[in-house]
Amino acid sequence: MNLELLASCTGHLCAGDQRTSFAALAELGTRLSGHFQKGDSVLLWTDKVDQIVAATAASLSCCTDIYIAHRTIPKEDITDLLSRFGIRWLMDGDQVHALEGARKTGTGSIFVMTSGTTRAPKVARHKPESLFATHRRTEKSQHARWLLTYPPTSFAGLQVVFSAVIGGADLVVPGERTMQSFAKSAEQHSVTHISGTPTFWRAFLMLVTPAKLRDLQQITVGGEAVDQPTLDRLSTAFPASRITHIYASTEAGVGFSVTDGRAGIPASWLETGVGDVRLRVRNDVLEIQTPRMLKRYESGEPTPIDREGWLSTGDLVSVEAGRLNFRGRSDRRMNVGGFKVSPEEVEAVLLECEGVAEVQVSGVPSPISGQVLAAAVVPKPGLNPEDVKKQVQRLAYGRLEPFKVPRIVRIVESVAVADSGKKVR
Amino acid sequence: MILPNHMERIERFVNEMRANKGLGRIAVTESTSLLDDHTGIDSLDLAALVVELQIECDLDPFQDGFINFNTAGELAALFADGRK
To answer: How far does Cα A340 stand from its chain's mean position?
Structure first.
């Protein structure tokens, strides 16, 4: 990715009501590159896709490091990042400010922040090759229209943005980041590619008319443990689309994609590995060994790697019928009467319920059992909530071990979803 | 003092739990032992019942530690005492 490539891009950015060609953004990029010099670094504080694309192309053309920070990161954190990393330029929206005390350490890397809603953001360095290597322009990719569901500054969001830019495709960015707006934009632009979390897809399925998305070729699901009921709902609604689910770990520097329609990944990978990636399970948690593992965040936090070089992903897994299934995060397990339960594994079963659009399982503190499971259930539109509640209870008692049965079931209108598209837990 | 509506709540809840397990209705009185086989509820149901009572009554009788109870009447009394 550089300015020359950007200037030759054939696709368009459709942000809200505005339609701009990506090639036209090369002009803004060229203006920015007038500031940047080799070894510099720039922090881009924005949520605008045009600024991200232009500034990234400019910084990579100049061998300048670029730190991409969302507008939701507070000013104090930005000020702290600027001084800690000796950053030369602050791009505050479209305003470029030169800063004192900068260090000349830039090498043309891209720095992505984790969403730091409660604590200071963690910063991970990516080489442009690792972010962009798999994207290329083909005859077919130029006719694609992508919908951006992720925040544009996130790793997943940047992947979508630059897939579209490099592929010569159009990128649709709804004016508002609401489910209604995603659904409306997808239909209006008749998008061909959508990548989102399972939580995103379940909400999306409630709002769209599949017949209005006849051009949808590629459905990608990732970012949270992908469950079978959601994959099944997608293939029923969009029988002609290719459905890919992804397991990715930024810390491990890996991303696996599976297209056979079954949740999880092949368990045989535990024996054979995948390319230079080795996998093993310890205490029900997936561990990974690769040459690309992130040893430490740029912001200083170490990653959980043991002495033999295995990185703990923190993802709970179990092996059934030749499949390695993801069961949720190990740090989110709840203690119910002395048994460990992860909310995701219970949700994956309750989603099998015909009448359930969405469900969130949580632990309520109990003086008797430590925690007791509660399920907040969103019924599909038009159904009688009491009937759905009974369906859920019947299914839970029939399918789950007693300690995994949510003894409290409440009907709710919606569950809380973070901007990343993941459920708030 | 045990309020009648606490007993009603407990009876309603016990019967909801029984219905989930395909069991028929029973009458719950102050002397009904809650963890008896007769009621058909287990310790997690009881935990959920306590949570429901805590929410409905906006009271937490266990905030200073666990208090033993056995019968429906003893549980109702904990919430009637009003240790907010």
So the answer is: 27
